Amino acid sequence: LMVLGEAPDKEEDRTGTPFAGQAGVLLDRMLAAIGRGRADEEAPVYLATALPWRPPQGREPKPGEIAMLRPFLLRHVSLAKPKVLAVMGNGGCQVLLGRRGVARLRGNWTEAAGVPTLPMYHPGYLLRYPEFKRDAWADLQALQRKLRDG
User: Fold this and answer.
1) Measured between alpha carbons, how far is 34 from 93 in angstroms, rounded to an integer?
2) pLDDT, tens digit, for every residue of 62-75?
């Protein structure tokens, strides 16, 4: 499982760790709920961000920046060789899938870089809007089934 987030936030940029802070704590709980974890050797999870750097002042990446970095992200995915991709948040969806609107995209399997891909809400979004945790749980169960059944 490869989990792809958005551009790094301030904390992630400072530490060099994807999904840091409270969003990372929630992601760890979400993954544990389906028997996965960052350091789990039997059920490994590879975490990455769609962009390698935080845009200045936390702004949205410009279309030219996305176009420039997309080939690097696709290569990153091919080197990681995941069986399944979870793309979290609008930023990840924009860079990898070329589409925004995670509320519309989530819960629907697609393919990116030749890998089954499920758009999902970002844990940071779920911290701000906990009413969407039910949708996130449904998506986690779909991930679990895909990982188990192929």
Assistant:
1) 22
2) 999 999 999 999 99
pLDDT tens digits for range 86-115: 999 999 999 999 999 999 999 999 999 999
Q: CATH assignment of 2-149?
A: 3.40.470.10
Ramachandran region, residue 101 (left: φ > 0; alpha: ψ -120 to 50; beta: rest): left
Task: Say what percent of the chain tops pLDDT 90.
Answer: 79
What is the DSSP-derived secondary structure letter of residue 47? E
How far the first Cα of the chain sits from its last, in Å, is: 12
Strands 2-5 and 46-49 come out as parallel
Q: Where are the domains of the chain?
A: 2-149
Strands 110-112 and 115-120: antiparallel
Categorise residue 70: left if φ over 0, alpha if ψ from -120 to 50, beta otherwise.
Answer: alpha
